[in-house]
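$ run holo --ligand "flavin mononucleotide" --emit tokens
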Amino acid sequence: MSKVVIFNGSPRKNGYTAKLLEQVAKGAKSKGAEVIEFDLNDSGIRGCQGCYYCRTNDGCAIKDYLQPMYEAINAADAVVFGSPIYYHQITGQAKVWLDRTFPMIGGLGDFVPRHPGKKLITIFAQGASDPKIGAEGIKFINNVFALYGWDLEDSIHCCGTSDPSFAMSDELSLRAFKDGENLIG
Ligand SMILES: Cc1cc2nc3c(=O)[nH]c(=O)nc-3n(C[C@H](O)[C@H](O)[C@H](O)COP(=O)(O)O)c2cc1C
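-- output --
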């Protein structure tokens, strides 16, 4: 069975990031995938301690909420990451998580991907309607995932949520659902 692991960097359970991630999950499940989700707003998450355990071990020394994610990523065919844009970047919660993904690359200076070949979908939501606002932040994290050897299939950037009349388009929801379907098979 295909496995998909989702990381949600939004603190808002019913926010636009969560809605789009849900569509990806539904699409993947509709094709029979097993989907696991990690809530990056969980209070049981600790930041990287800089101990460098992961330079010589494929994993993390911190035993917390995120500990099971290393095996989940290892076993997954696809990774899905979502975050709102806060101050032109991913959220603080997502950045804390990102530091904890340092085990995805081994070595000291050469940074060899340890778990390459995963399909990847990234999802972003931002208040401003101008996509340029979040573009640099999105480029940054998509580049980090490329370093991990993960293959970006689609990157959705939902813009303009601060507008009181904003409603997520059916087109965007459908795109996310189809992204989920396309992760499988
Ligand atoms: C602390 C904070 C910082 C934000 N910074 C930005 C920003 O730099 N640019 C922007 O367009 N929207 C910004 N926003 C608005 C969010 O990106 C927007 O509300 C988005 O829809 C949140 O995603 P969610 O609906 O998944 O929670 C910010 C919101 C918060 C709470």
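-- notes --
The CA atoms of residues 51 and 133 lie 34 Å apart.
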